[in-house]
């Protein structure tokens, strides 16, 4: 935004303040629990960037505006002095001095210089001061001065105690000794003559100011040495320094001097104005004992006996703070007859002779202070009073005087909103104020404004807006117009204003205006940009807004090119919620009510300050991953994936007080944001290359040149180049193996198919062979059966023939002939050739039958085997008898005997046993 200004407010507190000093510069307190070290800070110094170094009991404190770091000496001794020269920070301690330098990680490393001292032994010395003079560094203890130059150290003895040293007129001076002041000449200290006034006085500090040497004593104030003449400093502040034990003197730009004391904090003297202010514990310091002072870029750093404080010496915004709590919350401010009045929740206060005083009998809540015809009216919880310094005059007894507004086109007529309605104030010809309630309004009215002489708008705290038409006498309501929820959705805590003769309404963060022609509520386009911002002040040309919904930021604008803002974090929640108020004293001075005082804003000074403000590029303090702190010399930070879950880095703008930052993260993940701290943290970023551009945001909203930080998160091991090569190899191997597997599978399938086909072929052939064999067996069985039956038939015929022969034996001519014939018949029945043929055919069908029988039943005879063969063929006894040439009875007997030999139970068929054997 063109002409956009922003300011971060920090203030200082004090209780019994003077108006000449009732508004004071901001003070920032850094407490022990902030910097986590000891309480005492013996010396302070600031480098070119604005970073602070403090000589603390615990070590060297470093503060870059974002982070405190305590650096301890190897021997853990107290550091008494510190001085910055280029990139070295020199410190002095007990029998030890040296310097610190930042390493590649941004941390301080210590280098001792005492080893350069040859043939010398310390005598319990502590080094209380370090200064640079004539291309050399001088270290001061209470007894000796050490000169460090060209990597050599020279010991310079001094008679007496050395309490301070300073460069003056291109020469080095020290304080102490037997006569008071010495100057360094030809490598030794020479006493300055004619300083008898210093005899018996303890010199505590010396400083070169305006070509004069200021000599500060412990209890006798300051003396001025110029052109060889010593005089006591003739100024009222010197009386204060005598009372409060002077401890340090530091000049700073614009002819100003800071005097640090042991008992009363610091005195800031303005030579041009010839005035001074005192800052102590009652006015915002943490401690009244100032051990050290350092000035840098309109800021004073104070090393205290308990803490560290920082003072903005040229702040365009100053503050009054009531630390006692007696004043309470300020609700309104008025300035009349050169007297400043405060209205608070505890009563009315005014400044008399720069001392804040309470107006007697004004106790109670004050809502409004209004100047009418050079008279001050106070809207009070118990009524409305006319105030004149320390006196009150009751004007109206109606409770709760809120806002008083003038009636248009009428002299000496005003309306006031109250707890119970609206009252009319009229001044009669005698100069007396008369008050009467307006009939027709019986609800609390916190705000009101005129649309015209007879039309007034009233804001109810809970029920919204009312448009009231009054009679000509302005003592009664003739018409009340309310507005539906369609026009104004929310009626709670609404506000009404007259802006350039337009009725402007604020409700639920939205700005509206009343269109009198259409008699309707419309959105107010002029304030569209300030949605969610309430109006604290307007004069038709300039406006003060506050963002009460989000940032609590305050804006000052003319709705065109002139704008400034006051950030909420600067106000530290000191604004009065829902009762924020801005009071104009003149064209450039505005007052802002606070919960414990007020702020004074000098717009002219503020604009000049912002115009000359240089916004520094932020410095990189550190860069860390989950395990490591990286060297700041790297252009790109390489982070292992396993350590990338938490990445943090810090940038700082040490010379600014709590600045904001704007950053842009680009890469695998993108972010853009404003932040209130220079420490950024990123969690679980994806792997890849990143770039962060981070800039300091100044108090006027400008963005500095960005600090570019590049870092790369390596891929996880399973996504590294080696892993990818392995993955490619594995992939190719998988392809190869899959192809090989498929080929083998195809081959196996082909082989299985071929084997299957072969098996099928073999099975088919076997089946054919089996069928053929079965047919052959069947045929042989048939043949065997047929042959056997034929033999049996033949034998049966022969046997029948034999029987016939036997029966006709007597018919044979001779017995021999008969016998021969019978013998031949018997031979035919028992023909061995028939049996052999039978046996051959039988064995072809049952090749091992006889062997198995004999193996299991070795007692079987050939006849038994023959019977077994016939039974296996399932021949009946009748069929067997002719084959064996015996009778049927003989077969049965033989079967019986065979059963016994075969040990077959009577329940089992003999033929069945043999068939299955």
UniProtKB/TrEMBL annotation:
GO molecular function terms listed in the Swiss-Prot or TrEMBL record: DNA binding
Keyword Transmembrane: yes
TM segment ranges: 717-738
Record GO biological process: regulation of DNA-templated transcription
Keywords of the record: DNA-binding, Membrane, Transmembrane, Transmembrane helix
Superkingdom of the organism of origin: Bacteria
InterPro entries, per the entry: Ig-like_fold (IPR013783), Sig_transdc_resp-reg_C-effctor (IPR016032), WD40/YVTN_repeat-like_dom_sf (IPR015943), WH-like_DNA-bd_sf (IPR036388)
Protein name: DNA-binding transcriptional regulator, CsgD family
Species the sequence originates in: Cellulophaga baltica
């Amino acid at each position: 935004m063109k002409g956009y200004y922003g300011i971060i407010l920090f203030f200082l507190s004090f209780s019994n303040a003077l108006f000449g000093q009732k508004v004071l510069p901001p003070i920032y307190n850094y407490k022990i629990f902030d910097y986590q070290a000891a309480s005492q800070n013996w010396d302070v110094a600031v480098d070119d960037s604005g970073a602070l170094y403090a000589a603390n009991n615990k070590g060297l404190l470093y503060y870059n505006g974002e982070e405190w770091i305590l650096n301890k000496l190897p021997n853990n001794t107290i550091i008494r002095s510190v001085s910055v020269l280029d990139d070295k920070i020199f410190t002095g301690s007990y029998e030890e001095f040296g310097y610190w330098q930042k390493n590649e990680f941004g941390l301080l490393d210590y280098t001792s210089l005492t080893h350069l001292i040859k043939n010398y032994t310390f005598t319990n010395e502590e080094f209380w001061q370090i200064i640079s003079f004539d291309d050399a560094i001088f270290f001061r203890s209470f007894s000796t001065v050490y000169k460090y130059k060209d990597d050599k150290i020279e010991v310079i003895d001094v008679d007496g105690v050395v309490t301070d040293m300073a460069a003056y007129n291109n020469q080095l001076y020290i304080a102490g000794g037997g006569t008071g002041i010495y100057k360094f000449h030809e490598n030794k200290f020479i006493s300055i003559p004619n300083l008898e006034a210093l005899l018996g006085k303890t010199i505590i500090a010396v400083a070169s100011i305006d070509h004069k040497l200021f000599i500060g004593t412990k209890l006798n104030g300051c003396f001025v040495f110029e052109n060889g003449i010593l005089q006591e400093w003739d100024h009222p502040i010197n009386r204060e320094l005598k009372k409060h034990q002077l401890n340090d003197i530091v000049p700073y730009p614009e002819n100003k001097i800071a005097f640090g004391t042991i008992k009363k904090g610091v005195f800031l003297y303005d030579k041009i104005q010839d005035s001074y202010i005192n800052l102590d514990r009652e006015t915002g310091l943490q401690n009244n004992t100032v051990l050290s002072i350092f000035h840098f870029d309109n800021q004073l750093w104070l090393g205290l006996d308990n803490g560290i404080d920082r003072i903005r010496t040229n702040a365009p915004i100053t503050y009054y703070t009531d630390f006692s709590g007696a004043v309470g919350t300020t609700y309104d401010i008025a300035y009349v007859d050169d007297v400043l009045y405060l209205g608070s929740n505890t009563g009315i206060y005014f400044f008399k002779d720069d001392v804040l005083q309470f107006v007697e009998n004004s106790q109670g809540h004050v809502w409004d202070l209004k100047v009418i015809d050079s008279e001050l009216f106070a809207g009070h919880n118990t009524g409305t009073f006319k105030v004149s310094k320390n006196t009150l005059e009751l004007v109206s007894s109606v409770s709760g005087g809120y806002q008083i507004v003038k009636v248009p086109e009428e002299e000496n007529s005003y309306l006031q909103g109250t707890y119970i309605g609206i009252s009319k104030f009229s001044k009669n010809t005698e100069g007396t104020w008369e008050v009467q309630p307006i009939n027709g309004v019986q609800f609390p009215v916190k705000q009101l404004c005129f649309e015209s002489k007879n039309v007034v708008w009233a804001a109810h705290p809970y029920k919204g807006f009312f448009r009231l038409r009054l009679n000509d006498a302005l003592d009664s309501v003739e018409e009340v117009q309310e507005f539906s929820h369609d026009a104004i959705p929310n009626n709670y805590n609404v506000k009404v204003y007259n802006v350039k003769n337009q009725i402007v309404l604020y409700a639920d963060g939205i700005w509206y205006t009343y269109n009198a022609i259409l008699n309707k509520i419309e959105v107010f386009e002029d304030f569209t940009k300030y949605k969610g911002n309430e109006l604290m002040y307007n004069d038709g040309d300039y406006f003060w807004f506050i963002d009460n919904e989000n940032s609590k930021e305050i804006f000052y604008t003319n709705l065109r090119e002139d704008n400034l803002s006051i950030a909420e974090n600067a106000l530290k929640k000191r604004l009065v919620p829902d009762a924020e108020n801005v009071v104009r004293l003149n064209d450039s001075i505005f007052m802002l009510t606070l919960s414990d005082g007020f702020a004074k804003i000098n717009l002219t000074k503020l604009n000049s300050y912002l115009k000359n403000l240089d916004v520094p590029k932020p410095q990189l303090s550190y860069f860390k991953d989950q395990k490591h702190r990286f060297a700041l010399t790297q252009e790109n930070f390489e982070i292992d994936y396993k350590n990338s879950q938490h990445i943090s880095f810090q940038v700082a703008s040490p010379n600014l007080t709590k600045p904001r930052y704007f950053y842009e993260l680009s890469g695998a993940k993108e972010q853009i944001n404003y932040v209130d701290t220079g420490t950024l943290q990123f969690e679980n970023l994806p792997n890849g290359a990143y770039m962060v551009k981070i800039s300091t945001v100044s108090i006027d909203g400008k963005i500095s040149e960005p600090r570019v930080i590049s870092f790369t998160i390596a891929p996880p091991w399973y996504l590294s180049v080696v892993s990818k090569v392995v993955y490619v190899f594995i992939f190719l191997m998988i392809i190869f193996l899959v192809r090989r597997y498929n080929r083998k599978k195809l081959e196996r399938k082909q082989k299985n198919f071929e084997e299957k086909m072969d098996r099928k072929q073999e099975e088919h052939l076997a089946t054919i062979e089996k069928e053929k064999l079965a047919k052959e067996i069947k045929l042989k069985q048939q043949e065997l059966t047929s042959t056997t039956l034929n033999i049996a038939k033949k034998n049966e015929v022969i046997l029948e023939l034999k029987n016939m022969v036997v029966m006709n034996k007597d018919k044979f001519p001779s017995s021999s002939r008969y016998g021969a014939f019978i013998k031949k018949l018997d031979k035919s029945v028992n023909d061995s050739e028939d049996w052999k043929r039978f046996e051959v055919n039988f064995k072809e069908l049952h090749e091992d039958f006889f062997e198995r029988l004999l193996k299991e039943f070795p007692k079987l005879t050939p006849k038994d085997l023959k019977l077994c063969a016939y039974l296996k063929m399932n021949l009946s006894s009748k069929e067997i008898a002719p084959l064996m040439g015996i009778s049927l009875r003989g077969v049965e007997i033989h079967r019986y005997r065979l059963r016994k030999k075969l040990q077959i139970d009577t329940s089992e068929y003999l033929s069945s046993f043999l068939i299955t054997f």
